[in-house]
Amino acid sequence: MKITTVLFDLDGTLLPMDQNAFIKAYFGGLARRLAPHGYDPQKLIDAIWQGTAAMVKNNGEVTNEERFWQGFEAAYGRPARQDEELFAAFYREDFDKVSSACGYTPAAREIIDTVKACGLRTALTTNPIFPAMATERRIAWAGLSTSDFELYTTYENSRFCKPNPKYYLDVMQTLGVCPEECLMVGNDVVEDMVAQTLGSRVFLLTDYLINPQNVDISVYPNGSYSDLIAFIKNLNTND
Predict the structure, then answer these.
(1) CA distance 120 to 4
(2) Model pTM greater than 0.90?
């Protein structure tokens, strides 16, 4: 079956990133923003991690947004969602400062343009653990626009997380495509390459590789940004 749709990860893929540096900058900025409103920094960070864990375990009954706040409030011990506007203000006014912990590559624009020149559809399958406004800002940091994608996943519009295969199936159902006509591009062996188990093709970007289990990556098509561009151009040539 010919590939019709390319699914892209964001962090470490289209947006160069050292994940640890990003998390440190993100948590630091959020803690500084909320501390004057009575949020203990360490307790806040622990609650965010618990809310994130709740999203990763989401079974699809509610959105990731609802699951996050359930986990966060359980960890923090008070109805923190009443302060949701404080969090939103951080993303509107302070989150762009976190971009200093990320890189930039013009290859991101070239890759998207190549996909479209090949007549293929695009979707951004970034792990939906952030609200839309945070995802939209990270797209901009990559030098891209939300209009570059038919869909971009956020905690508001998603019910599962990576590496749950149901996350990818949900995306594909929304797009009206089957796994066999999709290519998933990402830098995380566990979270992104799992799409292959559904019958999708994959490409593992190695510039910012995440491989916690030290898997033999030769089992996947893999390489640099330039390798990915060549791979996309030749996707359907032998079909």
Answers:
(1) 5
(2) yes
Between CA 132 and CA 128 the distance in angstroms is: 9
H/E segment holding residue 34: helix 19-34
Burial of 61 (0-12, 13-18, 19+ CB in 10 A): exposed
Distance between CA atoms of residues 219 and 176, nearest Å:
28
C-alpha separations of 25 from 52, 97, 99, 159 in Å: 17, 8, 9, 27
Tokens for 199, please give them: 């019958």
Residue pLDDT, tens place only, 61-96: 999 999 999 999 999 988 899 999 999 999 999 999
Query: CB under 8 Å to 166, separation ≥6 — which residues?
Result: 60, 160
Quick: pLDDT tens for 157-204.
999 999 999 999 999 999 999 999 999 999 999 999 999 999 999 999
Locate the domains of the chain by residue range: 5-17+103-233, 20-99
Does 5-17+103-233 carry CATH code 3.40.50.1000? yes
Sheet holding 201-205, edge to edge: 121-124, 5-8, 182-186, 201-205, 222-223
